[in-house]
Design goal:
The structure is a homodimer. By secondary structure, chain A is an all-alpha fold. The first copy, chain A, is built from 5 helices and no strands. Chain A has helices spanning about 5-25, 30-50, 55-70, 75-80, 85-110. Chains A and B meet through α1, α2, α3, α4 and α5 of A and α1, α2, α3, α4 and α5 of B. Chains A, B: Belongs to the fluoride channel Fluc/FEX (TC 1.A.43) family.
């Protein structure tokens, strides 16, 4: 696929991922909203890794929607702005739940593939 | 601002953030590309936190561009897919460099504000 076509798929997915993250983050304010999208997105991306076959689907869903749905920069900024205790709890819960979600996603995806 | 207007700004930013992440990740393959966008995005979001004043600018640049530019789901999937040693190094470097970048971004932003 040409680079322009790939950019179009990634950009179109980016609209969906960013807008959905915004809606969920608005419903669950602050750190808990970011934790929710990151854990949910890590699970769904791991499922997609094992189930999506074509490069078009991978670019649109994985690089576009799901990578834009989750965010690292907001997590880092919220962690630094929080109190030390909340910051450490936020790092621990993002890592523990996020990596666990990715492992569960791989297991579920392998069953579905 | 109405929710539709906010979604439009976030979605438009999402196109830019996702497409730029894709281009950088293509240049720096795999784990190192994700580390690069996450650290760079964490720094820029922290600068934006202290310098952007209007909610329109915050929605477009922070929630749209910079949150979509970084990704947590790809980081989690790459960590799980890597060897245990590389996975642990990836978690450590993302956290150490990402949080340091966010602190540096806040310091730079406060000087610029």
């Amino acid at each position: 696929m040409q680079r322009q076509g790939a950019l179009l798929l990634v950009g179109a997915g980016g609209i969906i991922g960013a807008a959905t993250r915004y809606l969920i983050s608005n419903a669950l304010l602050g750190i808990s909203g970011t934790l929710m999208v990151n854990v949910l997105g890590a699970f769904m991306l791991a499922v997609a890794t094992t189930t999506l076959q074509t490069s078009r689907a991978q670019l649109f869903v994985m690089t576009g929607i799901l990578s834009s749905f989750t965010t690292y920069s907001t997590f880092a900024a919220q962690t630094v702005a929080a109190s030390p205790l909340i910051g450490i709890l936020n790092i621990g819960s993002n890592y523990l739940l996020g990596i666990t979600a990715a492992i569960c996603g791989l297991l579920v995806g392998r069953r579905l593939a």
